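May I ask for an example protein's residues together with how it folds?

___
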Amino acid sequence: MSNRRNFFRTAGAVALGATAVSRVGAASLPEAVYQTSPTMQPPRPPDTGRPYNPVATLNGWSLPWRMHNGVKEFHLVAEPVVREFAPGMKANLWGYNGASPGPTIEAVEGDRVRIFVTNKLPEHTTVHWHGILLPSGMDGVGGLTQPHIPVGKTFVYEFTLLRAGTHMYHPHADEMTQMAMGMMGMFIVHPKDQRQMRVDRDFVFLLAAYDIEPGAATPKTAEMTDFNMWTWNSRVFPGIDPLVCRTGDRVRVRVGNLTMTNHPIHMHGPHFVVTGTDGGWVPPAARWPEVTTDIAVGQMRAFEFDAVAGDWAIHCHKSHHTMNAMGHDVPNMIGVDHKGVAERITRLVPDYMVMGDKGMADMGAMEMPLPDNTLPMMTGTGPFGPMEMGGMFSVVKVRDAVRPGDFREPAPYRHPPGTVAYEFKGDLEQPARAPAPQGDRNTMRVRKPSGGGHANH
């Protein structure tokens, strides 16, 4: 208890020191490095400071720092950005250093970090270091633990990283707007001992959701439930990077959830174990094999597996979260013959297409006219045809010949002979079926009430 008590007693002194830096050090701010491309930047081992095994941020990058008297100094700039969700659609978001999410911050257990935050938004902001144990005055809750960062001003956060783990950063000021506009990033604290929790490939990404009407470019920040763009690092399939691995690699995937619902992240192929949570590493005796881990709002999870050759889907298992521009008022037209209606409609709208009467699979292959700056509901093409996916979906691509440090997308997987599902060409016997029950006037029918009237019970 004495160490913990002493730690919090020093909070005021640490905050005072950070204030002094902000006053005298403005002329010597560390460089604010920018990156606007959605192309993943390969992980770079550190040039200074303690060694660590860097992470690979899907469609993102890690923020460089400078060493100043033994302290790692980073510079974040909060500002409006333009993010390409996938080719054909861009969104007006808020983020950091030219990107949304902002760059991943990487440091090592025991490091002293000093993070300069410059506010170029049209309103005040703060930064909360989600899951990191630090002095209360550095926690980033505007009005409670610090003054808000005014427009055009730079504040300084300074603290020592006491434990390794997977963390996030985001505002605690006008959260409904600022987080809905894409202000977030990952903060990875590596173990002091490189041998601890070592893996061959370490991937990182954040879950975020947006409501952007077709033809628009700015999210509706007041939306709470009906989102239509489900993203990993503000990208949707097929714009999300694949997770490229070598056969036999020990692979870690770290995921943070800053949406407004939970996400059961499911991976095909090899089983995995959850090795990290918001609170740190999970002891080996407490782990168990899984193929799906549910990540609740505000949570982080890290899971690991041994890579097996092939193309393995990885996605949220909520089916609406693997679609783009998803509408919530689409009627179910399965079994409805509306060809006659369609013929009359095409006289007025020549491009009108009949769809939905047999299911929505045709959407994966259709090339329908779309409003500007939006994406098809289902898209993406694989070696065998349309994949009928969007949103929170990617592929773990494992190959024998991938070199260490190489994250480039490999050529299509060459399946060994006899390992691809195929059409059966023999004779099929018709199965015997019991007669189906027939409906009559006593069959219960349920009707959902609509309009402003009261339902009869």
Notes: The longest strand covers residues 71-86. The CA atoms of residues 24 and 325 lie 49 Å apart.
